Amino acid sequence: MSKKEIIVGIYWQIDDELLCNKEVAEIKESTFEIFDDNGKCIQTVEYKKDNVSRISSTFGHDSIWEKFYTRKYKNADYATHPRGRVLYDLQNNRHIIFADKCVTQDNILKLVEAFEIGGSEYTVERDFHYMCDKCVADYEEDNGSIFDD
Ligand SMILES: [Zn+2]
Fold it and tell me: How many angstroms separate the alpha carbon of residue 52 from the centre of ligand 1?
């Protein structure tokens, strides 16, 4: 009873396609556990005791980029293309999709599918942390905002 599985992770949007790296988390009464691809538990968090309000993937964009994508996308680093992170908000029991503003609405809906959020509530949020090269350039020239206009 009172055990729930959700998916968290990170993603990029490259030429309109999504690259997703996902991890499964199991939420229990007072702890959550994050599992790797082989079903091995790699992190246990006592979220009630430690006042942790969100589940976030253990993946970092920089290390995952190095590991899987750097050879394929030679002229890019982890911050070149639009990227974001899918978390789970333990207080409101819903996912949070952090997205660069270049991530299309179509792809937001594909993320909802890929992270199996469909049918549940979620919010889409912006963060200075998730800005692609284009957004950074726009921002520095002061003709853009990370938020929707
Ligand atoms: Zn952008």
Answer: 29
